[in-house]
């Protein structure tokens, strides 16, 4: 066991940390996470528009189209916001002007993915003549295009800046004016480059990336039990190595997660039943059914600590319970610790695999609905499950049952760990 720990510390941990801190990976993670407030707010309008109380639903029916607008301008154009966030974050890491790079990246994304539609004649009662953009091209389905255009725009801008291919203004010119002139030549190149790519060569970045990467989505996110369990295993496995599992997986899996919940929300908003949406293994599925108290389902372990004979574990349980109730589990992960601790690491990984399998079976058989809403991760599990499945009582019950399963899985390992801890405390007396 000591050799294994030494190997993990020497070989795996440095590589994983390096990947997690790589500037492009960090920019993707920060940029996409920056859209979180928008998707949460948009989710609430979806919920308001689909309240399962007939009297309320009938009263709101005349305003259904108006209430749908906030959803369309949050979740509906998610990739547009993500583009700005990704480029700004990467530019900041290079100490470049964040605002300029964010704006140029949005330009790149729009030119390469959202070709305007020209309507030549009025269609009475339907649409007026003019140019229109289909906002579906700006949704989470184009998230990979936003990543590529965001990163590539900043790298092009950096190249021009480092090679001094810019217009320099005299000293004393305000920075905002100077930055605008510095960006003129890179902006022209960026615009022409992406315009040629999309409109002359006919290369659609979003379509190409979807064709290449969608098979991966089917593995990690979707309706495959193997893919869902693989995601759970990787996230919990990284955590046991002392690495924030979600942070490592975010650049790879978060675009798929965002696409999936946005698609589910759009389908639900269009009238599809929550039992017949596209994706089971959304991030919200993990959040409300499996990560009860945080990754690894650690609220169960914290609860056991509260009744421990060990003074240290009991105190740790008291300190960790309130954060755990709101799905924050760093105190117990690093305080017990679970990191590099095989005794607690095993149930930390196995528990979510078991509850994930049960939750999948009950979802695929229609006992519980799929996730149709995004809530803050700090909402307590049963309440989050209830709201995110269109007020499904079976979903609420499933979260409670999964908590009991976590308790049962953690218990024997907890007793072994408690015995070790008691021995240490007795030796120190």
TrEMBL record:
Record membrane topology: Multi-pass membrane protein
Q: Give compartment(s).
A: Cell membrane
Domain of life per record: Bacteria
Residues of the PTS EIIC type-3 domain:
8-413
Where are its TM segments located?
31-51, 71-91, 103-120, 132-157, 177-197, 229-249, 285-307, 346-370, 391-413
- Molecular-function GO terms, alphabetical: protein-N(PI)-phosphohistidine-sugar phosphotransferase activity
- Per its record, how is this protein called by name? Permease IIC component
Extract the InterPro entries matched here: PTS_EIIC (IPR003352), PTS_EIIC_3 (IPR004501), PTS_IIC_cello (IPR004796), PTS_Sugar-EIIC/EIIB (IPR051088)
BP GO annotations: carbohydrate derivative transport; phosphoenolpyruvate-dependent sugar phosphotransferase system
Q: Entry's NCBIfam families?
A: lacE
GO CC terms of this entry: plasma membrane
User: What species is given as this protein's source?
Assistant: Companilactobacillus suantsaicola
Keyword annotations for this protein? Cell membrane, Membrane, Sugar transport, Transmembrane, Transmembrane helix, Transport
Its function?
Answer: The phosphoenolpyruvate-dependent sugar phosphotransferase system (PTS), a major carbohydrate active -transport system, catalyzes the phosphorylation of incoming sugar substrates concomitant with their translocation across the cell membrane.
């Amino acid at each position: 066991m000591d050799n294994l720990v030494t190997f993990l510390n020497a070989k795996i941990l440095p590589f994983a940390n390096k990947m997690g801190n790589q500037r492009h990976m960090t920019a993707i993670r920060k940029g996409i996470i920056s859209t979180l407030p928008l998707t949460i707010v948009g989710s609430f309008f979806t919920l308001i528009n689909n309240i399962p109380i007939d009297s309320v639903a009938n009263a709101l029916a005349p305003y259904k189209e108006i209430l749908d607008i906030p959803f369309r301008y949050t979740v509906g154009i998610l990739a547009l916001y993500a583009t700005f966030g990704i480029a700004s974050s990467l530019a900041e890491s290079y100490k470049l002007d964040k605002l300029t790079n964010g704006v140029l990246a949005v330009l790149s994304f729009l030119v390469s993915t959202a070709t305007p539609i020209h309507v030549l004649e009025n269609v009475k009662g339907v649409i007026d003549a003019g140019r229109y953009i289909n906002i579906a091209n700006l949704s989470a389905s184009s998230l990979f295009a936003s990543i590529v255009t965001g990163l590539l725009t900043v790298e092009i801008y950096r190249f021009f800046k480092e090679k001094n291919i810019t217009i320099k203004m005299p000293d004393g010119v305000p920075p905002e004016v100077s930055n605008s002139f510095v960006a003129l030549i890179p902006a022209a190149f960026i615009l022409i480059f992406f315009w040629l790519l999309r409109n002359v060569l006919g290369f659609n970045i979003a379509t190409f990336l979807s064709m290449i990467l969608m098979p991966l989505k089917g593995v990690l996110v979707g309706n495959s039990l193997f893919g869902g369990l693989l995601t759970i295993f990787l996230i919990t496995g990284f955590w046991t190595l002392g690495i924030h599992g979600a942070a490592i997986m975010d650049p790879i899996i978060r675009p798929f997660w965002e696409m999936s919940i946005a698609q589910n929300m759009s389908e639900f908003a269009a009238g599809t039943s929550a039992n017949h949406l596209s994706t089971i293994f959304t991030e919200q599925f993990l959040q409300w059914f499996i990560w009860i108290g945080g990754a690894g389902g650690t609220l169960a372990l914290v609860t056991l600590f509260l009744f421990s004979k060990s003074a240290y574990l009991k105190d740790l349980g008291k300190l960790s319970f309130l954060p755990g109730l709101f799905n924050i589990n760093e105190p117990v992960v690093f305080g017990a610790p679970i990191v590099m601790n095989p005794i607690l690491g095993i149930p930390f990984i196995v528990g979510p695999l078991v509850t994930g399998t049960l939750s999948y079976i009950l979802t695929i058989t229609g006992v519980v609905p799929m996730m149709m809403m995004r809530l803050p991760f700090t909402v307590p599990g049963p309440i989050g499950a209830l709201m995110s499945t269109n007020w499904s009582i079976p979903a609420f019950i499933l979260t409670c049952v999964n908590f009991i399963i976590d308790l049962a899985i953690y218990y024997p390992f907890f007793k072994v760990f408690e015995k070790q801890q008691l021995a240490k405390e007795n030796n120190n007396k």
